[in-house]
Design goal:
Blueprint (H helix, E strand, L loop, with lengths): L25 E2 L6 E2 L2 E2 L11 E2 H5 L2 H6 L6 E2 L6 H10 L10 E2 L1 E2 L2 E2 L1 E6 L1 H6 L3 H10 L16 E7 L6 E7 L1
Length: 172
């Protein structure tokens, strides 16, 4: 699929680089179209294994299968349309315990990708991100053990409004 035909997702700007979609041939269970990349899971009453990105983006898969692509959000923002865009029209990210989407400035953040301490230090944001994370009162001392694709993994988000980075941590 050429890049000109791929839907873009405000809350998943790095979707095509993050390994959060299946990059192989399949048939969309929503529209029946043959595709070469798709989402292979959603949360709902029915087990869904192949949904094309067009059917995710326009919300038709969420409507047809009475499901969502995001397991949990930090807090619901005030706008129902925004929540619908995130949960029903945005592919989730691969995580150990299910997606947990962070918020900032009364909006959902953009998911940047999986990170460890090394990646955060390379981006020169480690100190600010770990300080903000520690305020959440979740896991302690994650800086020493956080490793991209490791047993203790970070998920980096960025606010679409103020630009602040936020970290969510998950363990296997």
């Amino acid at each position: 699929m050429g890049t000109e035909n791929r839907p873009e997702f405000r809350y998943q700007p790095n979707l095509y680089e993050n390994d959060d979609i299946v990059m192989e041939e399949g048939v969309c269970e929503c529209c029946g179209k043959a595709v070469d990349m798709y989402v292979d899971h959603m949360y709902g009453m029915r087990d869904v294994n192949c949904v094309c990105l067009d059917c995710v983006a326009d919300g038709s898969a969420a409507e047809m299968f009475h499901g969502e692509f995001i397991q949990e959000v930090e807090e619901e923002v005030g706008d129902e349309e925004t929540t619908h865009e995130l949960t029903c029209c945005t592919p989730g990210y691969n995580s150990w315990q299910g997606e947990y989407w962070l918020t900032c400035c009364n909006d959902y953040c953009a998911y940047i990708g999986r990170v460890g301490t090394e990646e955060l230090e390379e981006m020169d944001i480690a100190d600010e991100v770990f300080a903000e994370y520690e305020e959440r009162g979740e896991y302690e001392d994650v800086r020493e053990v956080l490793e991209r694709d490791g047993s203790v993994q970070g998920y980096l988000f960025q606010c679409l409004h103020c630009g602040q980075y936020h970290l969510w941590v998950d363990t296997d």
